Amino acid sequence: TSAQIGVTGLAVMGRNLARNFARNGYTVAVHNRTVSRTKSLVEEFGHEGDFVAAETAEEFVAALERPRRLVVMVKAGRPTDAVIEEFAPLLEPGDMIIDGGNAHFADTRRRERELRERGIHFVGTGISGGEEGALHGPSIMPGGSKESYESLGPMLEKISAKAADGAPCVTHVGPDGAGHFVKMVHNGIEYADMQLIGEAYQLLRDVAGYTPAQIADIFRTWNTGRLDSYLIEITAEVLSHVDEASGKPFVDVVVDQAEQKGTGRWTVQIALDLGVPVSGIAEAVFARSLSGHAALRDASRGLSGPKPSALGESEAAAFADRVEQALYASKIVSYTQGFHEIAAGSEEYDWDIDLGAVSAIWRGGCIIRAAFLDRIRAAYDAQPGLPSLLSDETFAREIAEAQDDWREVLVAATRQGVPTPGFAAALAYYDALRAPRLPAALTQGQRDFFGAHTYRRVDRDGSFHTLWGGDRSEVSE
Ligand code: NDP
């Protein structure tokens, strides 16, 4: 038998992806460095479809129909290069290597270039949805050549998640690293979403005085409205969970130090390189890093803060409504920033990414899936050249309606000493964008003073410098 697709790397992701292909009627060649994984996959799940187990790289490649489609699901970084080096010499021009790992897009660009010279299509592909998504339908973000998408697209469409309207959550994102870039920003937005939800939770607990179980109910209610999303849904699950051993709310027995694997950090690093302000995503990454500084936090516990005072019952309910407004408005801002980064990456690398199509494929399967993404898609469909999500009439109106509550929530947070870096950064971004004048004019003056860096004037073209150390007259540069 010849297999239409092959998967090498059969840990949780690869094994589930292989099963997904098989369950959809494809013959799947499977391979793993450690042969026992291949064997156990076929033993446990062989009945789900047609698998061809390959022990060696040669067997694996020989099992594939041509042009070959070879999915690599191994640890990102060096292992991916090692696997490519193992397989590339066995392939022929026109064959495809699909890297479904969490690769850095710069690595993907390099690998694509090197393999293109050898006639092999390299398809760097973002895959989101975790283990369950890989099995039941992930959101898939493939980059690479148009030809490779023509060959692969129909298969990916079949195994991908479907949005509520039935559309497959996969699109050809763009050439070389475009798919992994978009996956990276997806993860950055995911960090921001999680941070904002965390701040909402902390406010409901510390300012409104609700218990985790009550807060779970509030999130359940929010999940029936415009915040309807996977992350809000699982937040309610986590908050209502009670630890069996101690009888305490689960959230109170978990060490409050958040970990990270790096894609959020990459999103911020690349945003800095591209000059895109992603302050909300950056605050989310910093909040995780701050939480992990145990010694620093221990040393700071004695620092003084305001006296806490919880709200009364009726005030608490009204406050919860305000927090919903603040969360929603902040979410609009973090997506605005994330899409700005994708637009900037697309511009820098000539990817021609369709932002509406990206929001459409995030509607299902991935971690940030949400009703909200349908509205982002609608915004880009209505105006493909939209300079920013905040320029969309609907989002602008919603923020306008939310802003009083948003500001009140931040006042309460500040007064009570509850850290809300995500909400605050989002509001600062919004206020900075709409400000008629920014203190950047003063910054320019300072730069000109100490470094003769020059400035532009509001009333005349050209660059100018003031002779600060002399008679303070202005010279044209
Ligand atoms: P891991 O990232 O834990 O990687 C384990 C797999 O990589 C095993 O099959 C292992 O083979 C193989 N491997 C490691 N080093 C080498 C090497 N030098 N040569 C050959 N094979 C090697 O597995 P996951 O399934 O968690 O993830 C796979 C990829 O998918 C990663 O890039 C990950 O970032 C990405 N991803 C993961 C998600 C998740 O939710 N887990 C979600 C989305 C993407 P062996 O069995 O022989 O050790």
From TrEMBL:
<comment type="pathway">
    <text>Carbohydrate degradation; pentose phosphate pathway; D-ribulose 5-phosphate from D-glucose 6-phosphate (oxidative stage): step 3/3.</text>
</comment>
<feature type="active site" description="Proton acceptor">
    <location>
        <position position="183"/>
    </location>
</feature>
<dbReference type="GO" id="GO:0050661">
    <property type="term" value="F:NADP binding"/>
</dbReference>
<dbReference type="InterPro" id="IPR013328">
    <property type="entry name" value="6PGD_dom2"/>
</dbReference>
<feature type="binding site" description="in other chain">
    <location>
        <position position="261"/>
    </location>
    <ligand>
        <name>substrate</name>
    </ligand>
</feature>
<comment type="function">
    <text>Catalyzes the oxidative decarboxylation of 6-phosphogluconate to ribulose 5-phosphate and CO(2), with concomitant reduction of NADP to NADPH.</text>
</comment>
<comment type="similarity">
    <text>Belongs to the 6-phosphogluconate dehydrogenase family.</text>
</comment>
<keyword id="KW-0311">Gluconate utilization</keyword>
<feature type="binding site">
    <location>
        <begin position="32"/>
        <end position="34"/>
    </location>
    <ligand>
        <name>NADP(+)</name>
    </ligand>
</feature>
<feature type="binding site" description="in other chain">
    <location>
        <position position="191"/>
    </location>
    <ligand>
        <name>substrate</name>
    </ligand>
</feature>
<feature type="binding site">
    <location>
        <begin position="74"/>
        <end position="76"/>
    </location>
    <ligand>
        <name>NADP(+)</name>
    </ligand>
</feature>
<dbReference type="GO" id="GO:0019521">
    <property type="term" value="P:D-gluconate metabolic process"/>
</dbReference>
<dbReference type="Pfam" id="PF00393">
    <property type="entry name" value="6PGD"/>
</dbReference>
<feature type="domain" description="6-phosphogluconate dehydrogenase C-terminal">
    <location>
        <begin position="179"/>
        <end position="469"/>
    </location>
</feature>
<dbReference type="InterPro" id="IPR006113">
    <property type="entry name" value="6PGDH_Gnd/GntZ"/>
</dbReference>
<feature type="binding site">
    <location>
        <position position="447"/>
    </location>
    <ligand>
        <name>substrate</name>
    </ligand>
</feature>
<dbReference type="InterPro" id="IPR036291">
    <property type="entry name" value="NAD(P)-bd_dom_sf"/>
</dbReference>
<feature type="binding site" description="in other chain">
    <location>
        <position position="102"/>
    </location>
    <ligand>
        <name>substrate</name>
    </ligand>
</feature>
<feature type="binding site" description="in other chain">
    <location>
        <position position="288"/>
    </location>
    <ligand>
        <name>substrate</name>
    </ligand>
</feature>
<dbReference type="InterPro" id="IPR006183">
    <property type="entry name" value="Pgluconate_DH"/>
</dbReference>
<dbReference type="Pfam" id="PF03446">
    <property type="entry name" value="NAD_binding_2"/>
</dbReference>
<feature type="binding site">
    <location>
        <begin position="9"/>
        <end position="14"/>
    </location>
    <ligand>
        <name>NADP(+)</name>
    </ligand>
</feature>
<feature type="binding site">
    <location>
        <position position="102"/>
    </location>
    <ligand>
        <name>NADP(+)</name>
    </ligand>
</feature>
<feature type="binding site" description="in other chain">
    <location>
        <begin position="128"/>
        <end position="130"/>
    </location>
    <ligand>
        <name>substrate</name>
    </ligand>
</feature>
<feature type="active site" description="Proton donor">
    <location>
        <position position="190"/>
    </location>
</feature>
<comment type="subunit">
    <text>Homodimer.</text>
</comment>
<dbReference type="InterPro" id="IPR006115">
    <property type="entry name" value="6PGDH_NADP-bd"/>
</dbReference>
<dbReference type="GO" id="GO:0006098">
    <property type="term" value="P:pentose-phosphate shunt"/>
</dbReference>
<dbReference type="InterPro" id="IPR006184">
    <property type="entry name" value="6PGdom_BS"/>
</dbReference>
<keyword id="KW-0521">NADP</keyword>
<dbReference type="GO" id="GO:0004616">
    <property type="term" value="F:phosphogluconate dehydrogenase (decarboxylating) activity"/>
</dbReference>
<dbReference type="InterPro" id="IPR008927">
    <property type="entry name" value="6-PGluconate_DH-like_C_sf"/>
</dbReference>
<feature type="binding site">
    <location>
        <position position="453"/>
    </location>
    <ligand>
        <name>substrate</name>
    </ligand>
</feature>
<keyword id="KW-0570">Pentose shunt</keyword>
<keyword id="KW-0560">Oxidoreductase</keyword>
<feature type="binding site" description="in other chain">
    <location>
        <begin position="186"/>
        <end position="187"/>
    </location>
    <ligand>
        <name>substrate</name>
    </ligand>
</feature>
<dbReference type="InterPro" id="IPR006114">
    <property type="entry name" value="6PGDH_C"/>
</dbReference>
<protein>
    <recommendedName>
        <fullName>6-phosphogluconate dehydrogenase, decarboxylating</fullName>
        <ecNumber>1.1.1.44</ecNumber>
    </recommendedName>
</protein>
